[in-house]
Amino acid sequence: MSIVKDIMNFKLSKEFKIGLWVIVTIAVTFFGVNYLKGINIFNPTNYYYLTFDHINGLVETNVVNIKGYKVGLVKKIIYDYDHPNSDVVVVLQVDDDLKIPVGTRAGLVSGLLGSPTIELFIDPMASSTEFYKRGDTIPSYIDNGVMEALSTELMPRIQSIIPQLDSLMVSLQVIAQNKAIEKSLSNIETITTNLKGTSVSLNKLVDNDVPQLIGNANSMMTKFDKVGDNLSVIDFNKTVNELNQTLSSVHSVADKINKGNGTLGLLLNDNELYNKIGATVGSANDLLIDLKANPKRYVHFSLTGKNKEK
Questions:
Q1: What's the burial of 77, exposed, middle or buried (CB within 10 Å: 0-12/13-18/19+)?
Q2: DSSP H or E stretch at residue 51
Q3: pTM (predicted TM-score)
């Protein structure tokens, strides 16, 4: 009991408290920095090495992926300042549960906008019993990806297009300085103003005249309907029959005339009668002429009632 009382009565010195706080602060800082880097110090890891002639801006804590899944980080990058032409060594830190088959290749993949990453490409035909051991060097290569395609395919095309763009800009400048363009724009503005006025006139026409025209058309249609009703009342069959009878009568009369029946037929078909009538008309004409020339021969007038002269 006395020992417990001594512990309870023990007072920590000021220096001990300060030292304890410093240790705790360092520990929290260490764990926090590693956490921000994505390093889990409580998880056992394996270390592998890669070598590149250049690393395209690869930095520590860049991710290591397999099929896009994060399996580790770039732990360290080693550059030998004493031998500048030597390769750059990259140390990978991957999950301890990951077993990398022999034949796997590590590619340094450059992103279009993001930082480069390490991609582990496992050969489907790789052995399932042989794996790289911790600390082994994995074969590596540089995959420029989109950047390489841009530099090898797109840039030459862009370079070939630039002269054409220059000539196009010169042509556009010449066209822009042409006064005909200004006149055309002025004409377009005038045409637009005229079209606006025409549109206003059409709106007035539609609002005022068109309803009246439609009303007149409706009235005419009503009249046509009435005429149609009246036409439907007419007995066309009866009218046609009567017209046929009339034509038959005319045909019969014409036939009789042609055959010489009746007075009119005799007059038209008897040549002798025609000649006699002609002679009679001629004699009458001669008589009238002689009567006009010698009236006294045919008519005698006497005031005393006595003819003195035969």
A1: middle
A2: strand 45-52
A3: 0.40
